[in-house]
Specification:
With about 260 residues, the protein is α/β, with parallel strands linked by helices. The chain is built from eight helices and eight strands, in the order βαβααααβαββαβαββ. α5 crosses α6. The longest helix has about 30 residues. The two termini are about 35 Å apart.
């Protein structure tokens, strides 16, 4: 692996043994003074991402009301050589690290009579994105003279990020639960996941796209035919801005 491995040991000998092992399989190792420091490094990486994702998600909600395209803003800001690092909005956070690790530190901080306010605020903002998106789906359907109850929604993507088959803490699952609660009929397509429980998998055919009252893109997998989506769907609610690359879609495209 080319990703550096941070290593801490209980004793100097433990550190040397662990480093000798990982040096055989990792291109670069970083030795630190203790296991706690190594663990804190991992926490800091995930907290950095969680807080920045929350910031861009909050900006997205603000810019929506101003009719400003958040993705265009991010791409323009990324042109500046001042240490800017782009993060992108989405339907919520998923995976086994970012939605979980920061809150471990927030809980642990209380043992030391201190608070992790940034972490807790970031978690609150990111959790609300799933609720916001379910509301946006309902409004989009309403704008097309369709009630969310008994509507047919095709969800594109169950994995928590593109081009993997991992559903752990996936925001797609939480959004589907909210839409089902509102009375929608849900089917899904994900090229990496075809046997999810309690949700019907369908191929991405012309017929399945055409019958859907809305197509909700929650994961921007690379191997999905978005040209077909733009051609045959009625309404596409796009949380990943992937449809921006489709030229002249017949479907109505809503950035969400």
């Amino acid at each position: 692996s080319k990703i550096p491995k941070v290593i801490g040991g209980l004793t100097p000998k433990c550190l040397d043994v662990a480093n000798a092992l990982y040096s055989r399989i990792i291109d670069k190792t970083i030795k630190v003074s203790s296991p706690e420091t190594a663990e804190a490094t991992k926490l800091m990486e995930n907290i950095f991402r969680a807080v920045n994702i929350a910031m861009v998600n909050e900006l997205k909600l603000i810019f929506e009301r101003m009719n400003i395209n958040i993705w265009e803003v991010i791409n323009a800001a990324d042109s500046k050589p001042f240490g800017f690092m782009p993060f992108y909005p989405g339907p919520g956070m998923g995976g086994h690290c970012i939605p979980i690790d920061p809150f471990y530190l927030s809980w642990k901080a209380k043992e030391y009579n201190t608070e992790a306010k940034f972490i807790e605020l970031a978690g609150e903002i990111n959790r609300k994105m799933t609720e916001n998106l379910a509301h946006r789906v309902g409004k989009a359907l309403n704008d097309h003279s369709k009630s969310i109850r008994n509507s047919n929604i095709l969800v594109l993507g169950l994995a928590y990020k593109k081009d993997i088959d991992d559903m752990r803490e996936s925001p797609s699952l939480k959004i589907i639960e909210l839409l089902k609660f509102k009375g929608a009929n849900i089917r899904y397509h994900d090229p990496y996941i075809k046997n999810a429980s309690k949700i019907e998998y369908v191929d991405l055919s012309k017929e399945n796209l055409a019958v859907a009252d809305a197509v909700l893109i929650t994961t921007d997998h690379s191997n999905v035919d978005y040209e077909k989506v733009g051609k045959y769907a009625k309404l596409v609610i796009d949380t990943r801005n992937i449809m921006a690359s489709v030229k002249n879609p017949k479907a109505h495209i809503l950035r969400a």
